[in-house]
Amino acid sequence: MSRGSVNKVILIGRLGKDPDMRYAPSGTAIANFSLATNHSTKDADGNWTDQTEWHSIRTFGRQAEFAGEYLKKGRQVYVEGRLQTSSWEDQNGQKKYRTDVIANDIQLLGSKSEAGTAAPPAESVSEPEAPTDEPMEPDDLPF
User: Fold this and answer.
1) Averaged pLDDT, 99-124
2) d(CA 105, CA 137)
3) Domain segments of the chain: what residues?
């Protein structure tokens, strides 16, 4: 960890869809999913409104396998990780940016009835971040 800086994200929200599972050429599992969080604000008339924020989550290895097996659309989860921004050029040569949460801890929340038929493990799966020396192939990118 660098001195004088922190890159940490903690989210509690609901999955927008089932995780998209892929595998790197090395065989490392990669899971991508969207997570919705809400923020309530009061307008000038005193009425409360919810604002939904969508977060793009990416995780690797055993954590990705856990996500692929147990996370389902609508499921409430706790996600902890760091922000990572990537850039690329589209077909028209325009520079595009995307910021993802690279999750290193995912925990299932909510009632047991939300879990469906599969019984998740009693604890979450945490593992170190994905190796940075392994380049991502274009087919491995989440966009």
Assistant:
1) 72
2) 24
3) 9-37+49-129
